[in-house]
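Handoff note, outgoing to incoming analyst
You'll be picking up this chain. Sequence as last confirmed:
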Amino acid sequence: MSNKDFEDLSLIDGFLVLSVASDLKCGPACGRLLAEGLLHEKVGYVRIHAEKIVPGIGLAKRGIRMDVELQSFPHKPEENELPEKIYDFEPHHKNSDNLFKRNRFNQAKIDAHNLYSGEKDFDNLPNLCVINILDYDPFGKGKAKYHFHNMCEEDISIPYPDGLDHYYFNTSSPNDEDDELNALLKYIQNSTEENATTELTKQLHEYVTKVKSSPEERYRYMTWGEYIDFETMEAKAEARKEGHAEGRAEGRAEGRAEGRAEATLATRREDILDALNELGTVSDDIVEKINAVTDIDMLKSWFKIAIKADSIETFVSQTVS
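Most recent structure output, in case you need it:
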């Protein structure tokens, strides 16, 4: 779990980003402000999705989870209308060696799900802008912004209009050439009133303050933190178990493992029910269905849904229905 208190979270922190994006009023406005501030371009009508799941092809292929997807339209969109442009916001704390290939994979999955079956005009494929917001320098060149797009190596003046851009913003480095961007990155890294020094960051801070004042979000952060802490302790316990496995009788080890597994399942079920009880009365039928689950990964998924759901009906529609 993050060592930060809920009040101290910043827009570089995944939980706050998702909380802001999930807010019906704050989400679209903040998404537009961030896109316009980071990229210096106007954004039209928007739709926003937090933690959007793009499934794999069949059970054997991997899907992706987009942290925040912002869809931009030149006019007020119809319900099923494809966007003109997609902004994929990805805040990262971890310096991962596979970041660039992961972005390549994510981009392919996003594109594959944004063109209707039978569509022959690839002009209708939305432009895609992948925005990585990092608290470290991924290339070690001391820049606040790195922008990549496809081009011809033999003649860089030749345009290659495939509509794909990758940005890496580094909140740990100043950018003396762009004071507005510098101020925005400083606020993203540490979202305090003192760092809200421009008109844009002041607007962002109003929305961030509103979300932080929500008792529901505070509770969800606490529950989410307990879940992460439990995962960490569980991993450490598993490592200790493996370290002491030598010399143990096989039957006794299996018995203990089964006991631990059942205890883990029971704890995960209780976590889900505790979260649902905050939303209202949980029927015996729902309790029975939750207690019948023996797949730990399914229970983990249901727990994440439970702490983000705004009602028991929402949880049921995404899980046990």
